[in-house]
Write a structure and sequence with these properties.
The complex is a heterodimer of chains A (543) and B (311). Chain A is an alpha/beta fold and 543 residues long. Helices cover 37% and strands 24% of the residues of chain A. In chain B, helix 2 packs across helix 11 and helix 3 crosses helix 9. Classes of the chains: A alpha/beta (543), B mainly alpha (311).
Chain lengths: 543, 311
């Protein structure tokens, strides 16, 4: 009995040193925590908090540049930091295993899924081929994959992302390890798939009594799955406690700030629709991709079908949907970065969907777009100033006037105007996204498209950028088209919401109506899958 | 308060990052391969530039009295004014009595000129075609099939064909080496253009109405510089080898101009008795090509983004 109560994983005073020249000395700084049998412990933190480094240290998979400098990691009492490479190899899979973020790249594409799980059994057990196969079929069944026999013989590319993650889980659990480390296992998945995988992990873990170390940046996921939570910041442990306590009565200011940055899933009341000029209207907009080839039958993908939208001045329209729903295609058609194959796009009274490239140029100014990846949306070789003034100068503004406008805009997005001569790599992700907004505003657009513009940002930075966007929309009376997969973000910023699935708009209405009383089955399923939807973040009980 | 935390992170990352970008070229200069290869190459350049001042005599001067002398022999030379001068033939003389040392030193000029010319011309043509091919979709298929065709022509056959049409000469040799090299540059540039044009910052530039030519020269072309420098070194090295081979076969540089390939070609018949005729130009050729390749390796390690990410 006392054996069962002993923690499966005990991390004591762990420090991991970063190589010289890094921005801080320790990737992980004197962190201690335990994982008990049958318990899910979440490590939460923003990027760079050291949460993944801890996971990799436990597995003994740390990159060579990083060195654990002090402390110990006890797996059922055995110090992993002192274990030899051979011993670690024995421990992996049998006593501890790990699932990774990217189910696409974590599996070998040239081996069938069955063979890959078989490899684990072959290495660590002395079972014969028939027994191994029986065991694999059993575990595939346990992770609820349909037709285990077929899945056994399938290659990874024949399966969906969620199915691949189930294969990873099956592989990790086939030898009944005592510790499962899950490094952002649902971040790359769509929200409905995420909900299924979370449910699966919780179920398996409860029946087997496995200890789970779950790494995530998403407080929704934390609320959904965790028993205990450890909050990390800059490699140090900020606060640790039971989930309920951390989420509703956090003690540390950082934890409070972090949790109250999580957008609420309940839309803010925005009042009746204002009378305004329609800035953008699409009419049966469609985009069909067809791969023409001499030797093959043309493959046709309908990325967007019959999309009707309209946005008025000062209004934010959100398009929400899972990956592949066509939301980005619509945005890119409207910005004419790709050519629509059907329907019309009216910018004011001008139809631009079929306009030839030469005539389009004057209209480009009116629609500006902010992209998802702040690290790739700026040319690394030109200064921020040059980046902002490029557009206005293309339309004939003189250099010093453009620079003056850039300085003003830097203030608008709350950055130092004196940093215009700096290069993009000298700014953080959130700051870069502000610069991209400034650049878009420099064109004095009528419509601003934000294509997943806050999805790559940490939650606290995300909140600031969202507030900035909303403030700019109000001040400039701008029309905003906001593309996102994140329902919480959409609830906070959108007046109107269009839910897209498989290229079609399945539900379209005011944010309050769509979130409050969804009509379409898909929308209902989408909302039901949102992690932590029952939790009202940021409403702390007064201590 | 939240803004303050973000600023705090940034002051640190700005300090760390600002050192990173500019130092890429400095880093290249610190790479041992670049230093070794670069120094040998610099010495070769100095030799080529200072050829008349390195104790050489006219490399085409024939002296029947002192034919086939072994290296280090003292020979008596009669100058144009009739005066007799004694000098040591460091690398001996060839079967016409020409001073091999002078010929090898002057030969450096031809080799480096060919290497540099081929690299520069091939890159200049390749960049233009590659940009067009990568950016203008409908032209891509046509251009690339032509490039495939060019790549299929063996350089030496082309050179033989061209020499039989025009006469042998430096220009002909350079042209014959450039033609099959251009497609290699085109493929490299095209592949970079194809990746970079999908980058959000290029799409962003399109959406602020940037004209196509600015887009190409400001946002796309700079990405090709580092890989092209690396590619250029390898082109130069192989061009020097091909020139030597062509000259050796008698279809390259005309025999009256000393080039390493020519010297070796002329020494071929008496190789068993007087190996120095082939040995010395061979050493120079090997060292020059090796130096350029070593430097190219070093440059690739530091400049090529795919390789440098691993560091």
């Amino acid at each position: 009995m006392s054996e069962a109560k002993k923690p499966v994983l005990e991390v004591r005073n762990l420090s991991v040193t970063l190589p010289k020249g890094a921005d801080r000395e320790f990737a992980v700084d004197k962190v201690s925590f335990t994982v008990n049998p049958g318990e899910i412990v979440c490590l939460v933190g923003e990027s760079g908090s050291g949460k993944s480094v801890i996971a990799f240290t436990v597995m003994g998979l740390l990159a060579k540049a990083l060195k654990p400098s002090s402390g110990e990691i006890l797996l059922q009492g055995e110090n992993i930091l002192a274990a030899s490479e051979g011993r670690l190899r024995e421990l992996r899979c049998t006593r501890m295993s790990m699932i990774f973020q990217e189910p696409m790249t974590a599996l070998n594409p040239v081996m069938t899924c069955g063979e890959q799980i078989d490899e684990v059994l072959n290495t660590h057990t002395s079972l014969d081929a028939a027994q191994r196969k029986a065991k694999i079929i059993a575990i595939l069944d346990r992770v609820k994959l349909p037709e285990p026999e077929r899945i056994y013989a399938s290659y990874p590319h024949q399966l969906s992302g969620g199915q691949r993650q189930r294969i990873m889980i099956a592989m990790a659990l086939v030898l009944d390890p005592v510790l499962l480390i899950a490094d952002e296992p649902t971040t790359a998945l769509d929200v409905t798939t995420q909900a299924e995988i979370l449910k699966l992990i919780a179920e398996l873990q409860a029946t087997e009594g496995t200890g789970v170390l779950f790494i995530t940046h998403d407080f929704g996921v934390v609320a959904e799955i965790a028993h205990r939570v450890a909050v990390l910041r800059w490699g140090g442990l900020v606060e640790m406690g039971p989930t309920e306590q951390i989420l509703s009565r956090p003690e540390h200011a950082y934890t409070k700030m972090l949790i109250s940055s999580v957008p609420s899933i309940h839309p803010v009341h925005r009042g009746a629709r204002k009378e305004g000029i329609t800035v953008l209207r699409t009419e049966k907009l469609g985009k069909v991709y067809s791969g023409k080839s001499f030797f093959q039958k043309a493959r046709v993908v309908k990325a967007a079908v019959d999309v009707d939208l309209d946005i008025r001045k000062g209004e934010t329209l959100g398009i929400v949907g899972e990956s592949g729903s066509g939301k980005s295609t619509v945005a890119r058609c409207i910005a004419r970065l790709i050519d629509p194959t059907d329907g019309k796009v009216f910018l004011g009274d001008t139809e631009i969907a079929t306009m030839p490239a030469g005539k389009l140029r004057p209209h480009r100014r009116k629609v500006q777009i902010v992209f998802q990846d702040p690290y790739r949306s700026m040319n690394p070789r030109i200064t921020v100033g040059e980046f902002i003034i490029e557009g206005p100068m293309n339309f004939g503004l003189k250099r010093d006037e453009a620079m003056a406008r850039a300085r003003k805009l830097m203030e608008t997005v709350r950055l130092d105007p004196n940093s215009l001569d700096r290069y993009p790599h000298q700014f953080s992700g959130g700051q870069r996204q502000r610069i991209c907004i400034a650049r878009a505003l420099a064109m004095e657009p009528e419509l601003l498209i934000a294509d997943e513009a806050v999805s790559a940002l940490d939650v606290s930075v995300q909140k600031q950028v969202l507030e900035l966007l909303d403030e700019i929309r109000q001040r400039l009376n701008l029309a905003v088209l906001f593309i996102t997969h994140d329902l919480r973000v959409a609830a906070q910023i959108c007046d109107y919401v269009a839910v897209m699935s498989k290229g079609r708009v399945v539900e379209y209405g005011s944010a309050e109506q769509v979130f409050g009383a969804p009509r379409d089955d898909y929308t209902k399923a989408l909302f039901a899958a949102a992690p932590g939807r029952h939790w009202e973040f940021g409403k702390f009980a007064t201590a | 308060m939240t803004v303050a935390t973000e600023d705090l992170v940034d002051s640190a990352s700005i300090a760390a990052a600002s050192t990173k970008r500019k130092s890429l070229w400095l880093l290249a200069l610190r790479n041992p391969n670049v230093i070794i290869g670069g120094s040998i190459l610099l010495i070769m350049l100095a030799i080529a530039a200072l050829a008349p001042f390195l104790g050489t005599v006219d490399p085409t001067r024939i002296d029947p009295a002192s034919r086939n002398k072994k290296p280090g022999t003292e020979i008596t030379m009669r100058l144009d004014d009739g005066q007799a001068v004694k000098r040591v033939a460091l690398m001996g003389t060839d079967s016409l009595g020409r001073d091999v040392y002078s010929r090898v030193i002057y030969g450096t000029r031809v080799s480096l000129a060919v290497g540099a010319a081929v690299a520069i011309i091939a890159i200049a043509i390749g960049v233009v075609i590659g940009l067009v091919s990568g950016y203008i979709r409908w032209l891509d298929g046509i251009i690339m099939r032509i490039m495939d065709g060019l790549m299929a022509i063996p350089g030496i056959l082309l050179a033989i064909a061209m020499v039989s049409i025009w006469r042998a000469g430096l220009i002909t040799v350079i042209f014959a080496i450039v033609v099959p090299d251009v497609p290699r540059v085109v493929r490299l540039v095209r592949s970079i253009v194809l990746t970079v044009r999908e980058e959000p910052y290029v799409e962003g530039a399109i959406s602020v109405g940037t004209p196509t030519w600015v887009l190409m020269f400001r946002h796309i072309l700079p990405n090709t510089v580092a890989p092209l420098i690396v590619q250029g070194t390898f082109l130069a090295a192989s061009a020097i080898l091909v020139e030597a081979a062509l000259s050796f076969l008698g279809i390259g540089i005309p025999p009256e101009i000393p080039s390493w390939g020519n010297i070796m070609a002329e020494g071929r018949t008496l190789f068993r008795v007087f190996p120095h005729n082939i040995f010395y130009p061979g050493i120079f050729l090997a060292f020059t090509v090796l130096a350029i390749n070593i430097m190219g390796d070093g440059l690739r390690d530091t400049l090529d983004p795919k390789m440098s990410k691993k560091v």
